[in-house]
Fold each of these.
Amino acid sequence: QSVLTQPPSVSGAPRQRVTISCSGSSSNIGNNAVNWYQQLPGKPPKLLIYYDYLLPSGVSGRFSGSKSGTSASLAISGLQSDDEADYYCATWDGSLNGLVFGGGTKLTVL
Amino acid sequence: QVQLVESGGGLVKPGGSLRLSCEASGFTFSDYYMSWIRQAPGKGLEWVSYISDSGHVIYYADSVKGRFTISRDNGKNSLSLLMRSLRAEDTAVYYCARDDGKAAADTHFDHWGQGTLVTVSS
């Protein structure tokens, strides 16, 4: 059972917009920066969003992040087939004194 | 370009030990915090351990505390993870990752290695 809660799966048609939620608490999301990672099949994870909403160099502007209170969201617009991947949220947890990941969300492009 | 190359994985019996290494290149290793993250087969990501740039600040996940030891050699651009008292549930791909943050609360991994598989089985 992950400290951060994500939906196991989401899906969308090409060119549509999908969002992935990440729910936590005041000891993690509520007081620390949220980061998002994309993991394509058979590959190591890739940083997608950091400090809640910033994009690393080279990441498409179709990805965006937001946070409100103890929840965060990742939005992907203009869905493409190569967006099919697992997506993970992560943040520091001050009570656990450790980094926590969400359980991951599998995105399927229909 | 930034490269992180893990090594040392393999098959080990329950209760055994293993040392993983991560060789870093393409950046000033001593400027960055580093972490180990693992992923059990077909499962999600689990953070394992974190070490500051100087090596003075270290954190462990509760699941490995007292059994795993993280260390670094800034002169050799190398990160290590010594794993003792291994259990079946430690079976996973272990990734080393560069942390672009400058404090625990800022932790975010901007570069990852390809991972090394550790299998704990009799």
Note: Chain B has a mean pLDDT of 97.
Amino acid sequence: DAMVIQNPRYQVTQFGKPVTLSCSQTLNHNVMYWYQQKSSQAPKLLFHYYDKDFNNEADTPDNFQSRRPNTSFCFLDIRSPGLGDAAMYLCATSIGLGYGYTFGSGTRLTVV
Amino acid sequence: AQSVTQLDSQVPVFEEAPVELRCNYSSSVSVYLFWYVQYPNQGLQLLLKYLSGSTLVESINGFEAEFNKSQTSFHLRKPSVHISDTAEYFCAVSGTNAGGTSYGKLTFGQGTILTVHP
């Protein structure tokens, strides 16, 4: 089945140690998004790619970076995780405006 | 700018009772509306969406939502809930500003936790 896959499902990292979360899709969608969702809060958009065009939200911290080497894969890099970065990270894809998103199952990041 | 307000953070209800989860939005010219459901430690799943046409949209598991432009609302309803409907529900809006290209970015509400009791 076509889908969005996030690995790993659970990630524990040390304070200040770089970590990378990955997302892959078999839907061949143009747009890929990364959202951060903290406990009991709405998902918050960090950035998105439209094909190779990278779009950063104005309030996304510099600590967060992203790479999209090809249509299928997108990575979220956190250069120096802090305790406040513990959250569920959601990857989503979309064919374009108005079609809705297909979400992955998320990666729950714990910072110790 | 666009925003979504979900008026209830938690809704407890008994099994087989009706339920309504309220959602109001503000947006610019064109608007698309969505309801997503999230089970614990999982991603969001699309429940239903309004793009155009009939203002009443339905999902395969008995939920429905009605787009009301005059009241800027998109409330979610189900006439009889099941224990398995216990989850968090997010209302979301996407659209474009006049002359803009938002690439379909979704803005989410704060979520409503629906708890169905036996």
Note: DSSP finds no helices and twelve strands in chain B.
